[in-house]
Amino acid sequence: MPTTSTQATTSPQDAQIEHDRIIAETEQRLGEKPRIVVCGKTGAGKSSLINALLGRQVNRVGHAEPTTQEEQEEAWTLGENSLRILDVPGFGEADKHQDRLDFIFNQLSSSHVGLLVVGAPDRAWEYERQFAQSVAEVDADFPLLVVGNRIDMFNPVREWNPQTLNLANPSTQKEKSIVEWAAALATACGTSHVLLTSAGESFEDVEGRYGLDTLAAAVVRSLPAAVQNAAARALRVDVDKRDLAEKVIWGASVTAAAIALTPIPLADCIPLAALQVALIIKIADIYGKVMTKETAFNLLSPVAASFMGRLALASLLDFFPGIGTIAGSIIGAGIAGPMTYAIGMTYLEFFARDNFKPSTAEVREQLKDNYRKARQEGHKMEEQARAQRAHGGKL
Ligand SMILES: Nc1nc2c(ncn2[C@@H]2O[C@H](COP(=O)(O)OP(=O)(O)OP(=O)(O)O)[C@@H](O)[C@H]2O)c(=O)[nH]1
Ligand SMILES: [Mg+2]
Predict the structure, then answer these.
(1) At 304, is the pLDDT very low, low, confident or very high (cuts 50, 70, 90)?
(2) Residue 49: CA count within 13 A, CB half-sphere
């Protein structure tokens, strides 16, 4: 029976429409233009490749010595939309290697796709292997595309015709060398596929360029994965922030319990209020907001203000059952700890949702709920406060 090919044939126009759609959707979902960071050893041809992709000579290209010394971001127009592409100084120079890596790893969190450019016919891939491995360790799903550049440099060097190059069915010595090199490089970098390019001997060498459209298409195809990864990353950051905020709140609550180990009359609760103001400022800081003492203090109203005797004590008693009577109100460790904890958790919930100005009604509702939960931890806070005091821990 004759077999029919089921392979879809996509016209260049359809491919372009699809790319436009993916890029536009990515930008919308990320809330910013996708950013591609181009990394690799010095001399691999990163700057040359960017110039060729952009069709503009934006980056300085070197000859013998390391060239790019500072990062440079450019707009990369692809069809109707554009991406951002970042050139960074190369790694691999003994005295600067670690600094360069640190810089690149700092850029990863604000980038969406990485290109690891490797210059052919080099086979010393230890730096690249380590780099790809470290990226996977830092962010397992970060899309890192490995690009084998300068493939025109395989022997015989003069025999370079990008138009007739056939890497699907290699027959010439050059084609076979390229394919064998790419397979070994893929293994070294722990990837299944290497994109092969030639940026040309110089910017003017337009005829010598190879693989740039395929590279651009691969970058576009990696964008949906980049969106997913960015979302997962944001979630991880949120979890990290919450973890940190909860630790800070717990620490402040134990300190509050320690302050009140010798029960204090309500009227003398200034140290507690100060501690809670500091706590609010710290939680806001974790969520990226600079808050003044005044704002934090106002936020604590009506709760903190109650401590200072500014509001009716009745409202405080309403919030925190167990304080005692209005006349003889004193705050002990079993109250001060949970109270602080409830205040911290209440503002954490607001700040995590970007609400830095909750209304009094909102605060009251949350606070009551959180205080009920916090009281169950009151004993633990008091125990830790006593242990802290016994060990001479500072308040
Ligand atoms: N023949 C050939 N030469 C290339 C190719 N790509 C880059 N080169 C040459 O390789 C040298 C280094 O290129 P750059 O683009 O400066 O390399 P880089 O990776 O940006 O290097 P640093 O900025 O030092 O990190 C230059 O002489 C380029 O002309 C290529 O595909 N083929
Ligand atoms: Mg460069």
Answers:
(1) low
(2) 35
Cα 40 to ligand 2 centroid, rounded to whole Å: 9
Measured from the Cα of 50, ligand 1's closest atom is 15
CATH 3.40.50.300 residue window(s) in the chain: 12-221
- pTM exceeding the 0.90 threshold for the entire prediction: no
Ligand 1 shell residues, CB under 6 Å: 40, 42-48, 61-63, 66-68, 89-90, 149-150, 152-153, 198-202
For the segment 205-220, the average pLDDT, to the nearest whole number, is 98
If DSSP states are collapsed to H, E and C, what string results for the chain?
CCCCCCCCCCCHHHHHHHHHHHHHHHHHHHCCCCEEEEEEECCCCHHHHHHHHHCCCCCCCCCCCCCCCCCEEEEEEECCEEEEEEECCCECCCCCHHHHHHHHHHHHCCCCEEEEEEECCCCCCHHHHHHHHHHHHHCCCCCEEEEEECHHHCCCCCCCCCCCCCCCCCCCHHHHHHHHHHHHHHHHCCCCCEEECECCCCCCCHHHCECHHHHHHHHHHCHHHHHHHHHHHHHHHHHHHHHHHHHHHHHHHHHHHHHCCCCEEHHHCHHHHHHHHHHHHHHHHHCCCCCCHHHHHHHHCCHHHHHCCCCCHHHHHHHCCCCCCCCCCEECHHHHHHHHHHHHHHHHHHHHCCCCCCCHHHHHHHHHHHHHHHHCCHHHHHHHHHHHHHCCCCC
What's domain 12-221's architecture? 3-Layer(aba) Sandwich (3.40)
Which amino acid belongs to residue 92? G
- Residues 228-259 as b or e (16 or more Cβ within 10 Å = b): ebbeebeeeeeeebeeebeebbbebbbbbbbb
* Res 359: pLDDT: 83
Confidence of residue 4 (pLDDT cuts 50, 70, 90): very low
CA-66 nearest atom, ligand 1: 24
Residue 75 neighbours by CB under 8 Å, 6+ apart: 33, 82, 83, 84, 85
Structure-token pair, residue 280: 């609010």
Give CA torsion, residues 163, 167, 169, 171, to 10 deg.
80
